[in-house]
Amino acid sequence: MGHTGRKTDLLPGTLELLILKTLERSPAHGYGIARDIEQASGDVLRVEEGSLYPALQRLAVKGWVKSRWGQSENNRRARFYQLTPAGLRQLRREEADFELMLEAVLRVLQPV
Amino acid sequence: MRLFRRLLFYLRRGRFERELEEEVQFHLEMRARENAAAGMTEAEALQSARRRFGNELLLREESREVWGFRSLESVVQDIRFGARVMMKRPGFTAVAALTLALGIGANTAIFSVTNAVLLRQLPYSEPERLVHLVSVNAGRGTERGSITYADFIDWRDQSGLFERIVLYTAVEPTIIGDADPERITALAVSEGYFEMIGASPILGRAFTPDEHQPGPGGVLVISRGLWQRRYGADPNIVGQTISFGGPPYTIIGVVDQAAVWPTNAQLWVPLGFGPNEADMRRDNMIWQALGRLKRDVTLTQAKVRLATMAERIAQDFPESRSGWSSDAIPLLEYVVGPQLDRTIRVLLGAVMFMLLIACVNVANLLLARSAAREREMALRSALGAGRLRLVRQLLAESLLLSAIGGTLGLAVGALGLKALVALAPEDIPRLESVTIDGRVLAFTAVTSLLTAFIFGLMPAFTVSRTNLSDTLKEGGRGSTGGRGKQLRGLLVITEVALAIILLIGAGLMGRSLVQLQNVDPGINEQNVLTFSLSLPRGRYPEPASTIGFYQKLEERIMALPGVQSIGVTSRLPVGGPGFGLGRVFLREGQPEPPASDHYPAQWNLITPDYFKTMSIPLMKGRYFTAQDNADSTPVIIISQNMARLMFPDGDPLGKRIRSWRDENLYREIVGIVGDVRYFSLDDERPSIYVPHQQGAWRAMEVAVRTTGEPAALGGAVRNEIRALDKDLAVSNLSTMAAIRDESLAASRFNALLLGVFAAVALLLAAVGIYGVVAYSVEQHTHEIGIRIALGARPRDVLRLVMWHGFALTLLGVAAGLAAAIALTRLMASLLYGVSATDPLTFALIALLLSGVALIASYVPARRATRVNPLEALRYE
Q1: Cα→Cα distances B10→A66, B65, B211, B501, B793, Å
Q2: Which residues from chain A sit within 8 angstroms of residue B2, using beta carbons?
Q3: Among residues B574, B609, B644, B802, which one has the fewest Cβ atoms lying within 10 Å of its Cβ?
Q4: DSSP annotation string for B176-222
Q5: Which of helix, strand or coil describes residue B291?
Q6: Which helix or strand (DSSP H or E) is residue B223 part of?
Q7: B386 vs A: CB within 8 A
Q8: Band of the pLDDT at B470, cuts 50, 70, 90?
Q9: How much is the mean pLDDT over chain B?
Q10: Pairing relationship of beta strands B563-569 and B666-673 according to DSSP bridges
């Protein structure tokens, strides 16, 4: 009973990684990022969409993304996020880490 | 860098909120549009978008929290919420805070006094090694008697106990010359006095060993007080002289009187002893001695050694020392005295009870509120608050309440302390330097806060155990209904019992005071002016000049208008100034002890009209006359109780008695007068009177009976005395009525203090009972509504509701009475004329509390009778 935590199927931290990756290609607003993640992962990674926003704020506080208000596709005001140089470096670092981890897991799963 | 960004966030918080909201709205709209494009209706589209988004509020809060200093923010939030909650129930908050404040404040004030007077160590160097030497005689009830010079020599040279030991005695010389004659208290001290205590002169020096010579003139040291008051803090005071009428004394130093003990001396002269037989007598107990124990000597060792030495002396000198022993009392203990010690401990007990009552009351209040807030807790839990969050919220509220109560308590404590010091009787030592003690404040604050915390947190803990849906249902009462009710009932019983104990204590003290006030002191104290005179030996060397002076004084003052009579005495009654002298008497023909017993009595030297001035009645025989002088038969007048003691079956008149250890002169009993209380209002010891012409002391007390207001004659009296001797100081100018009043000061103070505590306790208990009944009414509104709807009369409803409160009261009263019977014996020594288990007091208090409880339950109960059944039965 009561609040038991967020309902998310993602490993913690992965969401931020995905956001960074999405923003690598081009700046986007929150909804756009959500849609990109949805398309790119083929709906396999199901995200409680709203959890995007705290994640974005976490990235902003760490200085890896920055935001500004602009016009969306349909001329609505929306906040756009983009990677900072520090964010880009972080992305590379995390990608490298992730690959290492993946390798390790694969080695365990495929005995020699 | 991160910190900087976060700080910036605070400046733009409003904007952040708005932007975040706009952003989220945008997101939801986009999603809804997509859903609509996929075929949903507008309503469905938005709903689906919302569902997919998640808990908007929570997510926005999370976003916000990323930036803020989370823990600090929520604490502030909790406190603000707590403040709002408390504002909504101002009555509750006020009562709880006040109760805490009273408990903390009263405790602080009394503890501080206790610390300053009883516990705090003396300000001298290594004070724990300082002891006061005394003579003890269990048979005569003497516990702190003076000692002899011979004892002092023994202890100094043979005991091996003391690093140093000094002798001192008080004298009251009159300073004359440069200003008005002033009679001051001085100490004659033996070698090493200042060094032993560790007091350094602030100007000049102390005495050298060879300055301790017998004989007049020489050197002296004055106190800082005297130096400032009479000599204007003259920096060149060292080297100037002071005159008391004889050869001048040179001032060699100034010492702060607070740095030595006793603290009431204004100057010190060196004591010197020649080879004088009288000085070496074993029964001349007229000295005081102070010693510093050697480092390796414990108090017990000292006491044993002193007692052993005294025993041997008693064997060697049985006539003068049989029955006498010696003791060493630690100086702190000596300064405080047993009476004060007992008094303060009783007060301490009382105040602890009050603190207990205050805590119980606060606990009760919080418990009542906890039950009321169960619904709120359950609701918040359902909405997503974690248990920790709820606890933290309640903690913040308790903290707030405690902070308010604590601050108020500090104020109450400070004010209370000021009041205590102002109202306290004058003879309580060390009270002037009392301050709020930090440790005490901390202790009481912690106790009260603990109570507030524990009981304030109850709702959070109980909420986890209740069935949430039950609590949230309409009319749900929650689980503290049953268990909480019992606990609250127990608390009320405790409160009432404690209040009874305090009330009985106060009641007994009050009756004691009344009894004391009604004591007949044996005199008529109205319209009697009193003052003290001390003739210096230098100007009045033989008895004739002393007697002549007082005779002339009486003549001149009698000639003043408004004077009815005048008498001179060595000591004024009811604790007034003068020299209290106790001697023992034997009848003519009665063998000396140890063969027989002797009769102790208070010795008073008087002029013939003393009895008339004081309105002391003559029972038999006659008063003294002017013919009873140095050349006629030695005569004596005894008090009635003395007559009964010494002559149980015979007429004392004409018989002869002697004070066999001192004068050893047979005196003929010429009169029997009424008993008078000399030392205090409860002093019933016998007295005897000897004509001044046959004793001729120089320091006497004068009493003048006036027709009108005695104080009006003060100026005229001073003039007459100045005319007789311009260098004579009039001191202790007062009235007999004021002296009697002052003798009641201690009892009055105790009764007042206990009375205040008891009144507060009564109030708190009443509040507690009121709370219980009011709560009961609230809980049972539903049931009451039904009963009224079914035809119950107001009287029945009243009975139903009040019964609970009243039953608790009765149990509390019974418990309190039982406890009081056991406890009041601890204060028996402070009572006068009333026993510690006085049934009248007990009964009256029990009735009083029951009556108050009845009223306290009636008020909320009446509200129950006015319950509108329709409303009560509806959804509450």
Answers
A1: 18, 11, 80, 57, 63
A2: 61-63
A3: B644
A4: BSSSS-EE--EEEE-TTHHHHHTPPPSEE----GGG--SSS-EEEEE
A5: strand
A6: strand B218-223
A7: yes
A8: low
A9: 85
A10: unpaired
Q: How far is CA A99 from the centre of its chain?
A: 16
B278 has pLDDT over 70:
no
Pairwise pLDDT comparison (B159 vs B788), residue with the higher score = B159
How far is the first Cα of chain A from the last one, in angstroms, to the nearest whole number?
47
- Quote the pLDDT of residue B480: 44
Q: Name the CA dihedral angle for B460, B466, B467, B468, rounded to a multiple of 10 degrees.
A: -20
Taking the C-alpha atoms of residue B634 and residue B694, their distance in angstroms, rounded to an integer, is 7
Of A3, A31, A54, the CB nearest to B30: A31
- State the CB neighbour count (10 A cutoff) for residue A70: 11
pLDDT in tens, B609-620: 999 999 999 999
Residue B567: helix, strand or coil by DSSP? strand
Q: Which residue of A has its CA nearest to B381?
A: A2
Nearest residue to B371 via CA among B476, B239, B513: B476
Q: Is the preceding omega at residue B594 within 30 degrees of 0, hence cis?
A: yes
Inform me whether the C-beta atom of residue A63 falls under 8 Å from chain B C-beta atoms: yes
Instruction: Specify the amino acid at residue B609.
Output: D
Which residue intervals of B383-479 are DSSP H helices?
Answer: 387-423, 438-456, 458-463, 468-472
Query: Does pLDDT of A10 surpass 60?
Result: no
Q: Is B391 on the interface with A (CB under 8 A)?
A: no
Strand partners, B188: B169, B269
Q: A8 falls in which pLDDT band (50, 70, 90)? A: very low
Give the CA distances from residue B225 to residues A105, B88, B217, B238, in Å, rounded to whole numbers and listed in that order: 91, 57, 22, 15
Displacement of CA A97 from its chain's centroid (Å): 16
Distance, CA of B120 to CA of B113 (rounded, Å): 10
Return the structure tokens found at A47.
């995200």
In percent, how much of chain B has pLDDT > 90? 35
Record: contact A30-B19, CB cut-off 8 A: no
Encoding tokens for residue B333?
Answer: 């203990």
Q: Do residues B654 and B669 lie in contact, with contact meaning Cβ atoms separated by under 8 Å?
A: yes
Least confident of B191-195, B607-611, B670-674, B863-867: B863-867
Does the pLDDT value for residue A44 go beyond 60? no
- Chain B residues with CB-CB distance to A79 below 8 A: 19, 22-23, 26
Asked if the peptide bond before residue B839 counts as cis, ω within 30 degrees of 0, the response is no
- DSSP single-letter state for residue A43: T
Higher pLDDT, B141 or B570: B570
Whether B228 contacts B167, CB under 8 Å: no
Q: Record the tokens describing residue B767, joined without a space.
A: 């509040």
pLDDT digits (tens, 9 = 90+) for B178-235: 788 888 899 999 999 999 998 899 999 999 988 888 777 789 999 999 999 889 888 9
User: What pLDDT is attached to residue B460?
Assistant: 63
Contact B650, B588 (CB under 8 A): no
In the numeric block, the tokens 């995905």 are attached to A18
The most distant pair of C-alpha atoms in chain B lies apart, rounded to whole Å, by 140
Which ranges of B288-337 does DSSP label H, i.e. alpha helix? 299-316, 318-321, 331-336
Q: Angle, nearest 10°, between helix axes B839-865 and B745-779?
A: 30
- Residues of B numbered 46-65 whose beta carbons fall under 8 angstroms of chain A's beta carbons: which are they? 52-56, 58-60, 62-63, 65
Residue B507 CA to residue B147 CA, distance in Å, equals 41
**What's the ipTM?**
0.84
d(CA A45, CA A41) in angstroms, rounded, equals: 6
Name chain A contacts of B16, Cβ cutoff 8 Å. none
Count H helices and E strands in chain B, helices first. 28, 24
Nearest to A79 among B23, B386, B468 (CB): B23
Answer whether A1 sits within 8 Å of B382, measured CB to CB.
Answer: yes
